[in-house]
Design brief:
The chain has 350 residues and is α+β, with helices and mostly antiparallel strands. 41% of the residues lie in helices and 17% in strands. It starts with 5 loop residues before the first helix and ends with a helix.
């Protein structure tokens, strides 16, 4: 927890308003990779508009000429019959052939031009991976949540979180993508393009956030029943704020102090919670579900399905199938006292 309470203080109306704001769009790039992709899109879009306008204009001209030819024969008892063999005027035929060749050549040049723009964009994005000082993160797609592991050359500094990726602004980020079950696709449109996550095959993705903010991401490959509720967001912080968050995230959970919190920890350990979840600094080491060491510092639960509030958390614990049908988390039949104690304990995980 940054400075003992900075992260919690961020979870206020301003943060909730930022999360609810719809900025899930590639039309608002905030990093060099997204900017290259946006420039590529503008080039293709401009060409499509020009081609569409020219096509419609030619169609309207042809329609007008046809109408004029038809009006010229009105009032005649019998329209003239076509000649037995249609023979075009040589001059007109040469003119038509010339314009057909011009259109073919223009089409080929346009396609090759767009191909060059596409290759240039891919090359610019790929060259970004050579920049030093990158943050190394491994993201694993599960049905239906995101496991986020921050790697480090010192094993004691490696830690895991879920569904939220904190990154520093102005610094390259290397994402190693993996899939634990089926094919997923990582996509944060404000920062980078889509990248598939294939089981037993790791891939890499690079991006950089130039502007602080909260950027929604989404699984872009249909991966099962709750695919639409497999969201994440990238939190881009100034470097000094990110360093504070990073140091806090590496620390284990604090032991509970109050009696009801200790009872809640016992509920967590004795029930099935500890079989699926990890809490650093405790014997709980389950790997089926997300790591809960600092769960109360997260803005949402269930991969963006609900906000992280006490009421939403209680509903998620008791019956997650109501909120996210088909998820791997089972129902928990807890007494009101055990549920309250568990909530009080989870509130200490900051």
């Amino acid at each position: 927890m940054i400075g003992g309470g900075v992260v919690t203080s961020l979870f206020n109306s301003a943060v909730l308003a930022a999360i609810s704001t719809d900025n899930h769009t590639a039309l608002a790039p905030t990093g060099p990779q997204a900017q290259h992709i946006f420039n590529d899109y503008k080039a293709f879009y401009t060409v499509c508009i020009i081609v569409y306008v020219l096509t419609v204009a030619i169609a309207l001209i042809a329609s007008r000429r046809h109408r004029q030819d038809t009006d010229g024969h009105k009032g005649e008892a019998h329209p003239p019959l076509p000649p037995p063999q249609l023979q075009l005027d040589p001059t007109r035929e040469a003119k038509m052939t010339f314009w057909v060749n011009v259109c073919i050549a223009a089409t080929v040049l346009i396609l090759f031009g767009l191909l060059f723009v596409d290759f240039s964009t891919a090359r610019a994005i790929h060259q970004f991976s050579s920049k030093p000082g990158a943050v190394n993160i491994v993201v694993t797609g599960h049905q239906w949540w995101w496991e986020v592991r921050y790697d480090d050359e010192h094993p004691q500094n490696v830690f895991t979180t879920a569904n939220e990726i904190h990154v520093p602004t102005g610094r390259p980020v290397k994402i190693v993508l993996q899939a634990a079950d089926v094919i997923h696709s990582f996509w944060v449109p404000n920062l980078t393009g889509k990248k598939d996550m294939i089981p037993n095959h790791s891939t890499e993705l690079w991006f950089q956030a130039d502007k602080p903010g909260i950027y929604w991401g989404q699984c872009a490959e249909f991966c099962g029943f709750e695919h639409a509720k497999m969201r994440l967001f990238v939190i881009a912080d100034p470097p000094e704020v990110f360093d504070g968050w990073l140091n806090a995230a590496r620390t284990p959970s604090r032991p509970p102090l109050e009696q009801i919190q200790k009872q809640g920890q016992q509920v967590f350990m004795l029930k099935q919670c500890s079989m699926c979840h990890t809490i650093g600094g405790t014997p709980a080491g389950g790997r089926v579900g997300p790591d809960l060491t600092h769960v109360m510092n997260r803005y949402t639960l269930a991969a963006g399905a609900i906000r992280n509030t006490p009421g939403q958390l209680a509903g998620w614990i008791l019956d997650p199938q109501v909120i996210k049908p088909g998820c791997r988390m089972p129902q928990n039949n807890l007494s009101p006292h055990d549920l309250q104690a568990l909530l009080e304990y989870l509130r200490t995980l900051q």
